[in-house]
Design brief:
This protein has 414 residues and is an alpha/beta fold. The chain is 49% helix and 10% strand.
Length: 414
């Protein structure tokens, strides 16, 4: 059985994602497609527009065969840790042959050389010197790579190119047998907010959906029919701004020392965070007030999400050492069920289909020290789900991770 892995957010699943699956099928018509998908929050720290099961359903209806969750502790991290967590999860499953990823750069050899250059001593020295001058990690990385490789800084600043380099970097460092399969990105760029033609960015689609009255005729051009149907049924989409008051309540009760424990808070950032409270009237305003050249908005948004779930420096250090501890199954079809049988024999980590078999609801309120590393990691997935559930006009029921089974979507095996 040939297996192709994809790392995705599907927030929501659109025509650009469908194009990638079509390109994979061109190369490997019989491959089984495994998607490792962010759960309740995205890599940039935003609440996903729909819950993870709905987005996993879109993915399977759009052509994936099995969707597993990328744990929160890797999903809501920098590009480096996001990519590392996803690649290591695929590696531990023991069945993935290739990892497919979109990129604006269609020159695989240049990407490979850039990825292998990052961890050389001279490059790391130059990178840290740039960061010490006040540049963000992403800006410093793109600038230094453009000096030392054939890739331009503009290309490296594209979100998908940086992730592509990080996937290749992880594969190289792990000496993985998984082969890279870069696919030229099709259609609108990540930040493009236009809805022209048959493709659009997820950013543009979310903006339309979260407006007062979605233009379904326009959205119909850029979304597969199955995604359209599911989105029209839901009608209530998560909005980050709903977390503003819970976040204020959290921050009002925190000391500088408390904030220093949170992952990503260093170099006096705790003073900047608490100092911005009185000047802001919205979550967006708070993020803008805290962010700077050194701390871009995406990093601040992640930090604020970490504060809400209690994700601390000690947790990130532990999970960077242990890597993914399980594969949480979200949705699958007939081919996916065949792959699951193989995974049960070959996976180096347990497959979780029922949360309560690994963690119960009372464990969420225990001292994390009383839990196993697997339980501590899974606990953050559950907290993320409940937090994302607060982002709707009509908040979702808490504890969904203990109530929702993986979705089986029957499709005839091609």
């Amino acid at each position: 059985m040939h297996v192709t892995g994809i790392v995705a957010e599907y927030n929501p699943f659109h025509n650009g994602h469908a194009h990638m699956i079509k390109e994979i099928r061109k190369k490997h018509p019989e491959t089984v497609i495994l998607a490792v998908m962010s759960g309740s929050f995205t890599q940039r720290g935003s609440a996903a527009i729909l819950d993870k099961w709905s987005r996993a359903q879109m993915a399977v209806e759009g052509g994936c065969n099995l969707v597993v969750e990328l744990p929160f502790v890797f999903a809501v991290r920098s590009a480096q840790e996001f990519a590392r967590g996803a690649v290591l999860l695929m590696e531990r499953l023991g069945t993935v042959d290739e990892i497919a990823f979109g990129t604006e750069c269609n020159e695989p050899e240049k990407l490979r050389k850039a990825a292998e250059r990052i961890d050389t001593p001279s490059f790391q020295c130059a990178l840290h010197a740039s960061i010490e001058k006040g540049n963000s990690y992403a800006h410093a990385l793109a600038a230094e790579l453009s000096h030392e490789t054939e890739l331009t800084e503009a290309t490296l600043k594209e979100a998908n190119t940086i992730l592509a380099v990080e996937y290749l970097r992880s594969l190289h460092l792990m000496k993985s047998r998984i082969l890279p399969f870069p696919i030229k990105r099709f259609g609108a760029g990540y930040h493009d907010e236009s809805l022209c033609g048959s493709t659009a960015s997820a950013t543009a689609i979310r903006k339309k959906l979260q407006g007062s009255s979605p233009d379904w005729s326009t959205l119909n051009r850029v979304l597969p029919e199955s995604s359209m149907e599911l989105l029209q049924r839901c009608r209530d989409y998560a909005r980050d701004e709903m977390l503003y008051r819970p976040l204020l309540a959290r921050l009002y009760t925190k000391s500088f020392k408390d904030l220093q424990k949170a992952h990503g808070v260093n170099e006096g950032l705790e003073h900047r965070i608490l100092g911005a409270l009185s000047a802001s009237r919205s979550l967006h305003g708070l993020i803008c007030a805290i962010s700077s050249k050194r701390y871009p908005q995406s990093r601040i948004r992640r930090i604020l999400t970490h504060l809400l779930v209690g994700f601390q420096q000690e947790h990130s250090s532990e999970f960077e050492r242990t890597g993914p501890q399980y594969a949480r199954i979200l949705a699958f079809d007939d081919k996916g069920r065949m792959l699951l049988r193989q995974l049960k024999r070959q996976s180096l980590i347990p497959l979780i289909t029922k949360t309560s078999h690994a963690l119960n609801s009372t464990d969420l309120h225990r001292d994390p020290e009383e839990l196993t590393p697997l339980q501590r990691m899974l606990r953050f997935d559950c907290l993320g789900t409940d937090l994302q559930g607060l982002c709707y006009v009509h908040p979702k029921q808490g504890g969904r991770d203990f109530l929702q089974a993986p979705l089986y979507l029957s499709k005839s095996i091609q």
